[in-house]
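Form 7-S
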Amino acid sequence: MKKSLLVISFLALLLVACDQTGLGVGAAFKNLISLPVQGAQKIANSISGKTYEAYKERTTQGLNRDGSSCFDSQQGSGSSSQFNQLSRIACQCKAWATCLKELCSCNVMCPENFNIFNRPDYSLEPTEANSLSFVNSSSAFKNNKMTQGYCWGHAAITQRFNRLGFFDSAAQPVENGRVLDEGNDPQTWKEYYSKLIDKIADNEAAEIPGFANLGEFSRHPVIQEMLADKVAKTWADNAMSFNGLSAGLDTAGMTLDKSDLLFKNLKERVTNHQSPQLIITSKEQKFMTHVLLVSDVQEVNGEKRICLNDNNYPVRMNKKCNTYIRVTKDGRMLYPEWGSLGELGTVQVTKNEDTDTVKQVDALVKHCRGQRSCES
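Output:
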């Protein structure tokens, strides 16, 4: 029955989704005719879920090593006391350390667990530096149709760049031994950065020369256009899937048990340096959905709060948990920003979150070990 309802919803989207510049229509049709592939994807998601749990367990077991002495089993016991003391001062043996491998093993510097997200320049707190320069609003970009209402794409691309992008304002874009100059060869320059955007959108790590951070990167007019296009296409791939549509139909409301489990889940993810994608619906309002990022979870005067990085609002509104979901004592979830529609239906981590996270861990470990000439 539910499957039939989803098929009807797909057909309805073919009629009503034209305001999304045809992307919703195209993605819905593509997903409708590729149900066998989506069946295989469900199996892949299940496997990724098991891997996610394995990584979580590995992270828990390895927490005592994060920030511990540089002298692990790889160092040996014959070092002099004076050498030990000097080395401890010079090297902090933890994820993304730049120590000598003789002082800090690759398994510690590039851990195959969630500590790999704990980069020195990484922050869950929304800032101008780690945010896209445009919000998920047609009023912000009236002349850019590719940024009108693509919240899931906005959240996913923001997350992927923060986890996988390595910005370096002092470096220059180089291809085939030649420094690329936008003024002299704008097309080649654009294609170079287009490939980097594609890599990160595909959950691969990439070094991004010439820019200090995501905010600066996304303010460049040419880059901004490419990013906005990628945001829209990522929205279509996620929202116009059966997973996306089924979430839009699930609007019954949260119970105390569900809320407690979700809050615990989100707390674990934040503790493990993750800002997960969260999908929310308005209670009893089908397809009144939104996807945003979780920046923290807090308990204030006995009230639980889920801090949000809501892409509908500028960064200043998301800082210091200014935007949040309230969890009532009976388990209901309320989002004040939605006013009269603020009592939420089902609130859940997006179906693609664990799959993306596993891919990103693998990509970061590979990138980290490549930088340090570690054995794969």
